[in-house]
Design a protein that fits this description.
Layout: H1 17-24, E1 30-36, E2 45-51, H2 59-62, H3 74-87, E3 90-96, H4 98-104, H5 106-119, E4 127-131, E5 141-145, H6 148-151, H7 153-174, H8 182-185, H9 191-200, H10 208-219
Helix pairs in contact: 3-7, 4-5
Length: 221
């Protein structure tokens, strides 16, 4: 049986402790990875990779407020995303579109979108810090952290950039696919979204691999 994660290991705010372990071993290019949009019924999956500088003093203070993006308000994410980009040595954002998710399934899609994010970096990381997952497609040393977006500042930064980018994409898509209120629900299964599906049916950016089961249970019960 897998050892249960001890929540006491979660610090009050994400730190650079895991990054410093790699920096002290001579690996100066360390990328944090995280994704947004794994669970929605509609819209793409987004991942971000962020490389923070190893030689900036008080970086944790300069990025104060950055944490797991799900624990932040939209205003906080909008405010801090440009700050992250300013201090990052490098960052990249990658996408996995709905057709790809339906074709390969979320498990593989989640790994491939991380692969794309890392390949989008201008610099090749020597080590990856990833929230929970391991990316077998990448031949780079990896540390997979439970609750990584709450423990590693690099992962938290990636979490914010991915969430901010995806939210903006869903707001833009809401003007194309009207009536589903994507600007509000961001594709998640809110009561309003479910009601819109009942009334309008599925649109092009709905994930059929997610929605078909939901429709059977909720719409035709």
């Amino acid at each position: 049986m897998a050892k249960r994660f001890d929540p006491e290991l979660i610090p009050p705010a994400p730190t650079l402790d895991f990054e410093k372990i790699q920096w002290q071993q001579g690996f100066k290019i360390v990328a944090g990875l995280d994704e947004a949009g794994r669970g929605p019924l509609a819209g793409p999956l987004c991942a971000a990779a962020v490389i923070l500088p190893f030689d900036v003093t008080d970086l944790e203070e300069k990025l104060f407020g950055v944490r797991d993006s799900k624990q932040m308000t939209s205003f906080e994410r909008e405010t801090l995303a440009p700050v992250i980009k300013e201090f990052a040595v490098d960052f990249a954002i990658a996408w996995m579109e709905v057709e790809e998710i339906d074709s390969m399934g979320m498990g593989q899609a989640g790994r491939i979108v991380f692969y794309r994010a890392v390949n989008g970096l201008r610099q090749t990381p020597k080590h990856l810090l990833i929230d929970y997952f391991r990316v077998s497609e990448l031949e780079i040393a990896q540390t997979c952290l439970v609750k990584g977006d709450q423990r590693s500042l690099s992962i938290a930064c990636a979490s914010v950039l991915a969430k901010q980018a995806r939210d903006q994409r869903m707001i833009e898509l809401s003007t194309v696919y009207e009536g589903y209120h994507f600007e509000q629900n961001k594709g998640y299964s809110t009561p309003g979204h479910i009601k819109a599906i009942e009334e309008l049916g599925l649109c092009v950016i709905h994930r059929h691999s997610f929605c078909d089961h939901l429709l059977q249970e909720k719409l035709f019960e």
